[in-house]
Amino acid sequence: xxYKHLFSKGKIGNLELKNRIVMPAIGTALASSTGEASQxxxxxxxxRAKGGCGLIITEITKIDEEYGxxxxxxxxxxxPQHVPQLERLVRTVHKYDTKLFVQLHHPGRETHSALxxxxxxxxxxxxxxxxxxxxxRALTTEEVEGLVKKFVTGAKLAQMAGVDGVELxxxxxxxxxxxxxxxxxxxxxxxxxxxxxxxxFITEIILGIKHICxxxxxxxxxxxxxxxxxxxxxxxxxxxxxxxxxxxxxxAINVSSGTYESGVTIIEPTxxxxxxxxxxxxxxxxxxxIPVIAVSTIKNPDFAESLLEEEILDFVGVGRSQxxxxxxxxxxxxxxxxxxxxxxxxxxxIETLSKGGVVKCAVNPRVGRELxxxxxxKSGNGRVVIIIGGGPAGMEAARTWAGxxxxxxxxxxxxxxxxxLRLAGMPPGKKLMTEFVEYQKRELLRSSVEIKLHSxxxxxxxQALDPYAVFWAAGAEPIIPPIPGVDDIRVCTANDILDGSxxxxxxxxxxxxxxxxxxxxxxxxxxxxxxxxIVEMQEQIGNGIYASILYDITQxxxxxxxxxxxxxxxxxxxxxxxxVVHTKSGQPQTLAAQQIVLSLGVKAQKGLLEQxxxxxxxxxxxxxxxxxxxxxxxxxxEGFEKSFVL
Length: 646
Fold this sequence. Notes:
CATH architecture of the largest domain: Alpha-Beta Barrel
Largest sheet: 8 strands, parallel, barrel
Shape: globular
Number of helices: 20
Radius of gyration: 27 Å
Low-confidence stretches: none
Structural class: alpha/beta
Strand order of the largest sheet: 3-4-5-8-9-10-11-12
Number of domains: 3
CATH topology of the largest domain: TIM Barrel
Mean pLDDT: 96
CATH superfamily of the largest domain: Aldolase class I
Strand content: 15-25%
CATH class of the largest domain: Alpha Beta
């Protein structure tokens, strides 16, 4: 066996797990509107259990109907009516010898009044979260006592459903964490003050659960090893808390980090390497004798194995990677690492939830839709499907059609597959994009897709193949506006920089446009020793970029002294300069520029599209940037789902 540590049995309390792979809690919003386990959420978890995971910890589960909502359509355990459907979930997961914990949760101040019918949010103390920007009301002593009972009730209901254990969410700045931390707990009653008083809330919950559910019923507590906020819990504080929790009967510690205010330290963007916070897990593991579960941006089985081998942790928390590929565990077990669909760290999953939607994955369009796409119709019988364009949408379409038994023929006019996603992997910290492109290439080879590089077929060429369907996935090309001087030799596009066709060092460079491509191109140029300025028409850079991603990229731009000029549009390009004009006052400004890089968006490449639609009525589908400029998530989703509609 390649990964002997990863696939060794382990124990949490008296509960034996078949391997060391844990799927930590990830919000889904797939539960019913009444909080029961829906068929959709059961199918979602079944896919991960079937994929070989040893322990699944459910999404945040509500224990307080009045103030405890963390997201819409959230699993809930407040009354007996919630038990039957949860029992169905448990039985489904148990079919695969996978164990199930329910994560009991209360958001405290990290929620919005809109989720609780307009009521004021609550917290240990009236201190607003700088991220949610709502002032909470301090809970009364009697209300705190009531919440203890609600956590205990949630645990008992979970036990009635046959759940194998519960996890108390004491991390990420949620309510229990708020009581534990001096940063958010300024109470003067018995639930605040010194260390023991700040531990009282979680202590009463744990002892209550042990009393009602029995001392052998497993309890895990999720902790932030470091809150990463000034005045918050640091590693030495969390070690002390972990030791205390062990002393009162907790069976495992699940180590994470951060709060809403520290943002990217909870769910890290793609630039964070595997294991960047493993010191938090190691610090706590070496201080306690109970098992430690931990996350640390774990993507690959070999890295997970190394964490176990080095005794950094006892169980590896593999979260987003099991969204990207629910078969992560089985593929690792059978030595098929190169078949694992890699997570690209784009945060599309959390972004969709934060906007009120259900969980989604940029690279796995079946996430949350497992019932809808429960099986592939494999009636293709070798019929030909033409795909024009080898970007992410075209490759996903080719893979999907091949899985349905068709014979995809993919034409790509360049000499390389990957399209815009290949270029997206060029900036610093974006290697996961490249890894995904390489995965897609391997999938096409395994699927026996016929790939024709350096090829631009004519309509006649395609007609000769008598296709069942034609997918136009030719992508997009950069927008080049009619700015005076734009034809100067010193002007290029961001794509020219990213594909290496234009390069320079030590130049005063102006990047026009601050979308994701513009910002990342500016970062790349700065790392290469250029003096870079970004010009943007809007009041802020990065319009449309998810907040955590934008924070990450702006911090790096500051690190490399990239200058930013907002509220300005380019008027003209002159010799060694760019003239920009303030969008409100009309005041001109001249910026020194030896090189100018355009990053003003893209427009669809139409090419043969109109002729194809005429030649193949009702058989043509347009996907990816050829349809509209979008994200990789849009391209993958369209390439997949449109392969089912003909």
